[in-house]
Amino acid sequence: MKTLTVFYDAHCGLCSQVRGWLSRQPAYVRLEFVPYDSPEAAHRLPSIRHLQADQEIVVMADSGEVWQGGGAWVTCLWALKEYRAWSARLANPAMQRLARGIVHSISQHRYRLSYLMGFQSDAEILRLAQGHESSRSPRVLHDLDLID
């Protein structure tokens, strides 16, 4: 396995923060991040619409294996150099139920948590950046401006 594709909610501030954190971590395998509701996501994983990716994270390996929810997070941790030991602990059958429950609870409340923590989503940041660019008035040239 050389690449993991992480399908995440780009409209969620917490999800976008976690995407940023994951992308800054030293990793054994390359992590690629794709908004779950994008055309790119549908192209890479045609069944994504049926996986309820709007509710919990989905991760796909370049081998075609797919994980969702707690298993997806454990797989992301497995990819990171400094967290592989944690992934092994959380993959232990005794811890799987706890990991699944925590991830499910956070996923259910991610928008509220984003609001409480003041996190902006990737989609909001992009929208604000595009709005800022479009709010600049273009310079109107007059006849006299064309003369040196």
Automatic annotation (TrEMBL):
One of its GO terms (molecular function) is protein-disulfide reductase activity. It comes from the Bacteria. This is Putative DCC family thiol-disulfide oxidoreductase YuxK. It comes from Prosthecobacter dejongeii. The lineage of its organism: Bacteria, Pseudomonadati, Verrucomicrobiota, Verrucomicrobiia, Verrucomicrobiales.
